[in-house]
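Practice problem: predict the structure.
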Amino acid sequence: MVNFPTLESITRAANHIFKQYKEKKIALTETERYNSNESERKYQLDLLESELTNDMKTFKAKYAEEIDNLIDEAATASLTHVIDDDPTIAKLIDHTVNELSYSDDKNRILELLAYKIRVMNDTQKLTVLRQFGQISKAVSDDDNLDGMLSGLKSHLKLALPKHELQLMQLKQLRTHGNPTAAYDTYHIVTKGIKSL
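Answer:
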């Protein structure tokens, strides 16, 4: 897992502003100053809510912009860091795929490959990962091996260079990351889903 301090900073700032909003709202709600003028209290609360909504939109925009910047940086780094396949490992995969094509014990072959993968260096693991589709295709008729294949692939992905891991995580954050999750939850609970 790769950390993204700038994204974490945006999320912390959004949470801080939301916390301040809640404190100000409580103070406005409980103060005696507006007891004789409830319309002024409502005006102040609406103004506070409007400021919060604008702030949260700004944080979401900053977050999305920062993700785009980080993706560009990681993609640029990946262009300068190209690793060639290890020819010995490429041959090993060819032999393994051939053996899988005629074997009645595909599980044993994958177990042996897993043992070999455990002792490989990152370049060798990346070679296996790049040819993993051939292995998957060779055992596609056996659903019982899906779990083993998934485990092998997950292990191999750990060998990816940092910038490639960053790209994968940033893709997920672009889709699922939310710097204003606390505010969004509050908003849904207090206003309902339709108001978002």
